[in-house]
Amino acid sequence: MDTKITATATVLTYNSARTLADCLAPLAAFDEILVLDGGSSDETLAIARRFGARIEPQAERPGPVADFTAVRERSFKLASHDWIFVVDSDETADSELISAIRSAVSGDDRTRAYRVERVPVVNGKTIRYAYFSPDRIIRLVNRGTARWEPGKRVHEHLALAPGTLISDLAGMLKTVWPSLVECRRKDRRYLALAMSKPLARRPPFAAAVRAIFKNAARSVGILFCAFYLTGRYGRTGAVLPFAYHLRFVRYHAAVVRERFRQLVYGQRYTPPAA
Questions:
Q1: Closest of 61, 91, 55, 92 to residue 75, by C-alpha
Q2: Is residue 151 very low, low, confident or very high in pLDDT (cuts 50, 70, 90)?
């Protein structure tokens, strides 16, 4: 029987019972599973206890995450180990990834951070072709050489100490996507969080225009990529459905709208409803 991986796996939850058991099962290989919960009212906590997770509150007030960076920072402070594997409650690490993490942690090279490949599962199908593929993201770090970039309430980002090398781990994290309706609801909430910081003054014109054109170009680029991938690989059954690609087109178009509104209204700007 393998010894436990001397690292902490951190998971944020809020009414995550639908996917949590699949998420936690492979994490049993870790010495510690740290679940930060937002006050779930479904079976989330019972499932977490069944897998021996240590459960802590995300914040003083229960509810969906209002500041992802703050909760991630809290998870780093509460972790019992310096090596931390960051995983979402709708993600499942395959056995190859768990083995790769075990090797990386046992090597204890603190000059390195590790990326993993996320692969979406949509309507029961594993997606290999999407505008963002391959989607590699830093998820295994030593907290002595990584910190969460401040000021981002959503789309949180790990900043690494100068000189830190990045390596890719074998295996994958499969991410179960909910229905398109739920995805759009999530996007509206994320947009509201991203735009929720009060403006002290009107954004500088040049910076605002850059943000507008950047997101407009991204929206158009995703649309063309969706057409190409659907035509090129549509018969494989492994392409992200066109409607899900349009989800991201709409999101970046909404960012364009909000950046324009910020430029026009300045301090009188009000963020969109979630």
A1: 55
A2: confident
DSSP state of 1: -
The band of 274, judged by pLDDT with boundaries at 50, 70 and 90, is confident
- CA separation for the pair 272, 250 (Å, rounded): 14
Q: Which phi and psi angles does 161 have, rounded to 5°?
A: -65, 150
The one-letter code for the residue type at 150 is P
Closest-CA residue to 85 (of 76, 95, 74): 76
Q: Can you give the C-alpha Rg of the chain in angstroms? A: 20
Token digits of residue 196: 């929720």
- Place 265 in a pLDDT band, splitting at 50, 70 and 90: very high
Q: Please answer whether residues 88 and 20 qualify as being in contact, where contact means their C-beta atoms are separated by less than 8 angstroms.
A: no
Helix 180-194 to helix 242-265 angle, to the nearest 10 degrees? 20
The tens digit of pLDDT for each residue in 20-44 reads 999 999 999 999 999 999 999 999 9
Q: Are 125 and 144 in contact (CB under 8 A)?
A: no
What pLDDT was estimated at residue 193? Answer: 95
Predicted TM-score (pTM) of the model is: 0.94
> Token pair for residue 51?
């897998």
CB 58, CB 74: distance < 8 Å: yes
C-alpha angle 123-66-193 in degrees, rounded to nearest 5? 75
Per the DSSP assignment, residues forming a β-bridge with 34 are 10, 54
Phi, psi of 136 (to 5 degrees): -110, 135
Query: What is the mean predicted confidence (pLDDT) over 46-59?
Result: 97
Confidence of residue 1 (pLDDT cuts 50, 70, 90): low
Question: Can you tell me the distance from the alpha carbon of 131 to that of 224, in angstroms, rounded to the nearest whole number?
Answer: 9
Q: How many CB atoms lie within 10 A of CB 242?
A: 13
Three-class SS of 123-137? CCEECCECCCCCEEE
